[in-house]
């Protein structure tokens, strides 16, 4: 097996969908589906899954995959006229054959560059042309890094405005034994939560008290943070989510919600 295949493998996943497996020499791995440009798995050197993926997740257009890390673009949540969380998560991305230079460590050998461009279907519901690039990289120590670059490619001189989020589902053994630290305060989850925290620090800690470990989410360029868990009643109301799965997930999202980003033609 060549060195390239050791670190990056292109193969078929659920329902024959194209996915990319990233492997780090110490045993960490990540899986990225081109459908949605979505990370669906991140495992440590012991093979323990760190991201939540619902047992009822559908890997079939046009439904978004329930779990992993969803790309919310060009709209977060219901803040706007588009469908919930925008359409990027329901589109099939492509491997970017000629990505621009990314400010990343050259020692990272396990990475993939994806790109999503406007389609005629997109233009009907959001009348703009764009390029959305995503690099997913697995660092030498197992760190998972996502870097997005969005460009306005309108030819009519029009600017566009968007909101954005990495909708990240962390796997937790028992939600009642977890807490998170944001804005210098620690919070536990014991009921339905769907909170947006504005102008948050660049680092958010997620504390697993049972396993005595800490996840650290670092973000740059995304000032806000979102915390979500549907709890029991809302979990039962979701078709692609198990009734008791709320006990094993916590969404902590790096986001740009309060102050949407505006790009002029040609800007990135």
Write the layout of secondary structure elements.
Layout: H1 3-7, E1 8-12, E2 18-23, E3 29-33, E4 38-43, E5 69-72, E6 94-95, E7 110-117, H2 120-125, E8 130-138, E9 144-152, E10 160-171, E11 178-182, E12 185-188, E13 193-197, E14 203-208, E15 213-218, E16 224-229, H3 231-237, E17 249-263
Antiparallel strand pairs: 1-2, 2-3, 3-4, 5-10, 6-7, 7-8, 8-9, 10-17, 11-12, 11-14, 13-16, 14-15, 16-17
List keywords for this structure.
mainly beta, five-stranded antiparallel β-sheet, 268 residues, globular
Explain this structure.
About 5% of the residues lie in helices and about 40% in strands. The longest helix is centred in the C-terminal third of the chain and has 7 residues, at about 230-235. The protein has helices at about 5, 120-125, 230-235; strands spanning about 10, 20-25, 30-35, 40-45, 70, 95, 110-115, 130-140, 145-150, 160-170, 180, 185-190, 195, 205-210, 215-220, 225-230, 250-265. By secondary structure, the chain is mainly beta. It has a 5-stranded antiparallel β-sheet with strand order 5-10-17-16-13, with no helix packed on it. The chain has a 4-stranded antiparallel β-sheet with strand order 1-2-3-4. A 4-stranded antiparallel β-sheet has the order 6-7-8-9, with no helix packed on it. The chain starts with a helix and ends in a 5-residue tail after the last strand. The chain is globular, with a radius of gyration of 18 Å. Strand 1 and strand 2 (about 20-25) form a beta hairpin. Residues about 1-5 have low confidence and may be disordered.
């Amino acid at each position: 097996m060549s060195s390239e295949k050791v670190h990056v493998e292109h193969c078929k996943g659920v329902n024959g969908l194209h996915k990319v497996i990233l492997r780090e020499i110490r045993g960490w791995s990540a899986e990225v589906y081109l459908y949605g440009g979505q990370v669906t798995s991140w495992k440590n050197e012991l093979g323990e899954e760190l991201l939540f993926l619902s047992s009822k997740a559908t890997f079939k257009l046009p439904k978004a995959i329930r779990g992993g890390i969803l790309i919310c673009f060009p709209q977060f949540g219901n803040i706007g006229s588009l469908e919930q969380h925008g359409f990027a998560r329901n589109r099939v991305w492509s491997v970017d054959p000629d990505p621009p230079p990314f400010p990343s460590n050259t020692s990272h050998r396990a990475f993939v560059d994806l790109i999503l461009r406007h389609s005629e279907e997109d233009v009907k519901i959001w009348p703009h042309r764009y390029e959305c690039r995503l690099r997913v990289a697995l660092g030498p120590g197992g760190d998972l890094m996502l870097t997005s670059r969005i460009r306005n490619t309108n030819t009519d001189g029009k600017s566009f405005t968007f909101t954005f989020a990495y909708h990240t589902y962390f796997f937790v053994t028992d939600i009642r034994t977890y807490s998170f630290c944001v804005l210098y305060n620690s919070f536990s989850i014991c009921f339905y939560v769907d909170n947006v925290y504005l102008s948050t620090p660049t680092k958010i800690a997620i504390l697993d008290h049972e396993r005595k470990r800490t996840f650290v989410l670092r973000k740059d360029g995304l000032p806000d943070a979102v915390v979500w868990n549907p709890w029991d009643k809302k979990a039962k109301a979701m078709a692609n989510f198990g009734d008791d799965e709320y006990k094993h997930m916590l969404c902590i999202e790096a986001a740009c919600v309060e102050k949407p980003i505006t790009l002029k033609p040609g800007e990135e």
